[in-house]
Amino acid sequence: METEKNLEYTHVLHTFGPVYNANSKILILGSLPSVKSRKQQFYYGHPQNRFWKVIATIFEENIPETIEEKRTLLLKNQVALWDVIESCDIIGSSDSSIRNVKENDMRVILGQAKIEAILLNGSKAYELFIKYCQAYTKNENLKLVKLPSTSPANATWTLDRLTQIWKNEIIACLK
Predict the structure, then answer these.
(1) What is the DSSP string of 64-100?
(2) Cα angle vertex 22, ends 20, 28, to 5°?
(3) Closest by Cα among 155, 157, 32 to 92
(4) What values do phi and psi take at 87, rounded to 5?
């Protein structure tokens, strides 16, 4: 198995836009799309990532297969989706290797949607948001929540446990 030392950094630009509309109340942010997601040009494209299973279960929907089904599931339930990072240097999909970050301008969504809460998908997304994006929310009265990552690398969280904590936060935010 190769280690990060044997691999090279790649400069990655986030090449697909956020999912949101004027009715979005919750903004879920990841760090940066994985290699598989970048190839598919949409969020959480790795087959082992549990994001879509979690979201579908919370809203009692079928697990979406296509990009359009995923987009519809989010928007129907007042959820916006984006990432903290616009560009950075990274090795593969390794969040721990991220450097030279340029953040996404959160005003794109915050200025057009009724966001009441920002949910961060994992510790790295939370850490990066605090470091690079929190200034965008200074004049907003937003709830900020760090949730356990849906990544397959976060094996300590079972799907059921992950779904329950995500559900508790999402339902509380939509009340």
Answers:
(1) P-SHHHHHHHHHHTTEEEEESEEEEEESTT-GGG-EE
(2) 35
(3) 32
(4) -155, 155
Q: Which residues of 35-59 are buried (b: 16+ CB within 10 A; e: fewer)?
A: eebbeeebbbbbeebbbbbbbbbbb
pLDDT for position 28: 98
Q: Calculate the alpha carbon distances from 107 to 72, 128, 150 in Å.
A: 22, 16, 25
- Which residue is catalytic, options 6, 21, 23, 49? 49
Over residues 145-156, the pLDDT tens digits come to 999 999 988 989
Quick check: is 21 catalytic?
Answer: no
CA-based torsion, 51, 54, 55, 60: positive or negative: positive
Residue 116 near residue 26 (C-beta atoms within 8 A):
yes
The reported pTM is 0.94
Closest CA to 90 of 140, 131, 38, 49: 38
Residue 51, pLDDT score:
98
Distance CA 126, CA 116 (A): 17
Specify the pLDDT at position 18: 98
